[in-house]
Design goal:
Elements lengths: L9 H6 L7 E4 L2 E4 L7 H14 L16 E6 L2 E5 L2 E5 L14 H13 L9 E7 L5 E4 L11 E7 L2 E5 L9 E5 L4 E4 L8 E3 L14 E7 L7
This protein binds N-(carboxycarbonyl)-S-(naphthalen-2-ylmethyl)-L-cysteine (MD3) and fe (iii) ion (FE).
The site of fe (iii) ion (FE) has 3 residues, from loops.
């Protein structure tokens, strides 16, 4: 298990024992290379099924633009936007119904990844699903609308590879870049939770499971949980 107190010791050695599979990106953040590869076909199938209930849509930005990334959600809370701003909502504004439930396969993956990165007891209530068509991008931002910033965010990449950017705690901190591939999982928590991050325009390419798309799942604790 990873530790996030920055202290040197034998636990820090453990963290490097399989560097290909658990690479610390920053204190609190870890890349689990290929962690989801084995279940990727089932994940893509689950996403397709959920998208028939809550279709992918290009959200409107508060400035009146249209996001190049198409999104949908599963879980109790979904991500919505309009001219008044972004927020989490219990129902899909397109249907008026609750979002599709988060399948056990997804919940279990998120819990196992968080645990492997040093965050046991991760119980997300929202899974945002991003779909990148060729040239779609996500500009540098922080994820700050979750009520529980103590919990990490777990991200799963599927399909076409993309270049992920992450900087520091200020927008102006020069971002570093790392290529994320099909099956890669990244966990961001603790001191890394408020890192500015984004995705460079996704290249025109095809993947056997997703065709022209890159899919990304982000698991979050968005709401205040009741005891
Ligand atoms: C670092 N998604 O949905 S995932 C998003 O690949 C989002 O679709 C990107 O940023 C994507 O908000 C990046 C990696 C990620 C997610 C959340 C983070 C990195 C993060 C939160 C804090 C710091
Ligand atoms: Fe984000």
């Amino acid at each position: 298990m990873m530790r996030h107190d920055g202290r040197q010791g034998s636990a820090m050695i453990d963290l490097f024992e399989d560097e290909r599979h658990c690479l610390p990106l920053d204190p609190g953040a870890a890349l689990l290379g290929g962690f989801a590869s084995g279940i990727a076909p089932a994940l893509v199938e689950a996403i397709d099924a959920m998208a028939t209930i809550a279709p992918f849509r290009h959200l409107e930005t508060p400035g009146g633009g249209r996001m190049s990334v198409a999104m949908t959600t599963c879980g109790e809370l979904g991500w919505v936007s309009d001219r008044s701003g972004y927020r989490y909502a219990r129902t899909d504004p397109l249907s008026g119904h609750t979002w599709p439930a988060m399948p056990l396969l997804l919940r279990d993956l998120a819990g196992r990844a968080a645990e492997a990165a040093g965050y046991p007891d991760f119980h997300p209530d929202a899974c945002l699903i991003n779909r990148y068509e060729p040239n779609a991008r996500l500009s540098l931002h922080q994820d700050r609308d979750e009520a529980t910033l103590a919990a990490p965010i777990v991200s799963v990449s599927l399909g076409v590879s993309a270049t992920f950017l992450w900087g520091g705690h200020r927008r102006t901190d020069r971002p570093r870049r790392h290529r994320l591939h099909h099956g890669d999982v990244v966990v961001w928590g603790g001191p890394a939770r408020m890192t500015f991050h984004g995705v460079d325009p996704v290249p025109a390419d095809t993947h056997p499971l997703t065709g022209p798309y890159r899919l990304n799942l982000t698991f979050r604790c968005a709401g205040l949980r009741r005891a």
